[in-house]
Amino acid sequence: MSDPDNDLISGLRAGNESALRALIDRRSASLHRVAYRLLGDTYDAEDVCQETFLKFWRAAPDWRDGDARILTWLCRVATNDCYDRLRKKRPDLPGEMADYPDGRTGAEAALVNRERWDGLQTAMMSLPDRQRAALTLRYDEDMSQRDAAEIMGIGQKAYEALLVRGRKGLKALMQETEHV
Fold first, then answer.
1. How far is the C-alpha of 157 from the C-alpha of 164, rounded, in Å?
2. Closest CA to 3 of 100, 73, 69, 75
3. Which domain of life is it from (predicted)?
4. HEC string for 147-163
5. Taking the mean position of all CA atoms in its chain, how far away is CA 5?
6. 91 by DSSP, 3-state: which?
7. Residue 21's pLDDT is what?
8. Is the dihedral of CA 99, 101, 102, 108 positive or negative?
9. Which sequence spans correspond to the domains of the chain?
10. Closest-CA residue to 68 (of 146, 1, 143)
């Protein structure tokens, strides 16, 4: 299994802070997206990312090549941390949303797109945690089913079932909000 972060492993094992900074630069956006999608809060997602990189920094000296790719390990640890946080407290629906550029002009178009995005985020947060994680890893992070299943600690068939249930649930929730 080829690891795209392989060039950093020797530096990370040796405790080289510039290797850690390079890893954070490469992987923090992906990790933050996963944590944000699961938690619905940008500050909690930042905390999860910081803690995950800190855990990796501590584990790096004992890193064994071939056991897992670094990104897979990071996502698995972050996902588990998110699950732990969700078990402790169900998040409120998001109040602060990331701004995404709207290709169309005009306030009305921006409002329609914002309402759709808010509806999607609300629907995603209404899904069970594991379905939300499966959808996030597949569609937000474009991970293969094998990698996503590994991150979630389940088999590929179980992952596929989560995707199917998540898509159906999301579709139903989105249709509900369109008719309200």
1. 11
2. 69
3. Bacteria
4. HHHHHHCCCHHHHHHHH
5. 18
6. coil
7. 94
8. positive
9. 6-88, 107-178
10. 1
DSSP state at residue 95:
S
Tell me the C-alpha distance between 106 and 51, whole Å: 41
145 vs 43: CA distance, rounded Å: 28
C-alpha triplet 164, 73, 28: angle, nearest 5°: 90
* Predicted confidence (pLDDT) per residue in 116-165, tens digit: 777 778 888 888 989 999 998 888 888 889 989 988 999 999 999 999 99
In residues, how long is the chain?
A: 180
Say whether domain 6-88 belongs to CATH 1.10.1740.10. Answer: yes
pLDDT tens digits for range 52-79: 999 999 998 888 877 788 888 999 999 9
Place of tokens 């944000």: 36
Q: Identity (one letter) of the amino acid at 45?
A: A
Q: Which pairs from 62-67 meet CB under 8 Å and 24+ separation?
A: 63/9, 63/12, 63/13, 65/3, 65/6, 65/9, 66/1
> Does CATH number 3.40.1670.10 belong to domain 107-178?
no
pTM for the model = 0.62
Among 160, 84, 171, residue whose Cα is nearest residue 123: 171
